[in-house]
Amino acid sequence: MAHAQSFTITITCSRGGTPRYRTYWTNNPNDPNIIQNPRPTLRQTITVVYEVDEQGQVSKIADNSAGVQTLPSGGLILSNSAVPRSAIPPIQGPPPGGRFNGVIYSSGNLAVRSVSDVNNASEASNIRAVASYQQLSIAARNHILIQSNLRYQSPIPDPLPADPGQWPRNLLGLYAGQDVRLDPQGYLSITSNSNRNLLVDGVVMAQNGEVRGHNSAFDACANAADLRDGGSFRVFGGVIQNRLGAINCGTVGGVFRGYRSNHTYDRRLLDPAYRPPSFPEVSNATLNTTVNTVLQGNAGSAGSQGFWRLIGQ
Fold first, then answer.
1. Distance between CA 95 and CA 165 in Å, rounded?
2. Which of 8, 150, 195, 207 has its CA 20 to 30 A from that of 174?
3. If DSSP codes are grouped into helix, strand and coil, which group holds residue 130?
């Protein structure tokens, strides 16, 4: 049985400016869907949970503006925690009852993880981030941080059935204008636990940067001893990067530090019908234009086209 595709969106404001938050679906600040946090503090977080059904219809199922928060059992958490309070960060997208176009975009950095996928072995293995019917692109102007396993609810069989009508529909694309960084939390942490693997189903793209470890120990491996043996970074889909990024520091002190690469190509991607929504084509010579107008949208079109946009730095 398919679970509904949920998106738990959180924004934390940590410094200066006006003590106010709002999340809204359109460019109109007077829109009735605005949610405001009534209890301003030095550090505030607003969390809103949306579900998208198999027909693409959007509904809001929870928010913490009234101090109540209920998370779904599966789905994705997307967060931006480096936002000054003066920015009053909005979340834009199709209004509840409207149709989701398959794209979530952040103008800054975006951390992505599965709901409850950081606590123990059972959750790390069994929680599914992408519903069986969902085709999804997550894009950020700067970096994307992968903080947990990101798995399809319907695994992709190998080999694929000859009939495309029997292929699973779920599909994920992660696009970063700069780096895609491996930053697993909790049970999967690269600095405290060993040989637990990091698993991603989908296409991972770092347009102007690299796919690399996020911890500073990966920088020239000066502090490689801070890293554990992370097992494998396994991608079932595809990896595209401008430069080859560091995901390990080799063997230091008799211990392998970081991740081994273990990627498998998703052969569904050979079929034009199986591409993450609005995802840049490798053959497209005007990639920047495509990303700016299709994935990101612009001030004039973001609201009307129904892009979810998290405004960051």
1. 32
2. 195
3. strand
Q: Per-residue pLDDT tens for 262-300?
A: 999 999 998 888 888 878 865 544 444 445 444 544 333
**What pLDDT does residue 226 have?**
92
Cis peptide before 89 (omega within 30 of 0): no
Question: Would you state the structure tokens that stand for residue 266, as one six-digit string?
Answer: 């998703």
**Cis status of the peptide bond prior to 159, with omega within 30 of 0:** yes
- Please give the single-letter amino acid code of residue 51: E
Q: What is the pLDDT of residue 72?
A: 62
Give, as one character, the DSSP assignment of residue 158: S
Element (H, E) at 44: strand 44-52
Residue 164 near residue 271 (C-beta atoms within 8 A): yes
User: Nearest to residue 37, comparing CAs of 70, 8, 10?
Assistant: 10
Tokens read off for 242: 């401008």
State the amino acid at position 130 in one-letter form. V
DSSP lists the bridge partners of residue 46 as 11
Amino acid type, 141: R
Block residue for tokens 């995802």:
279
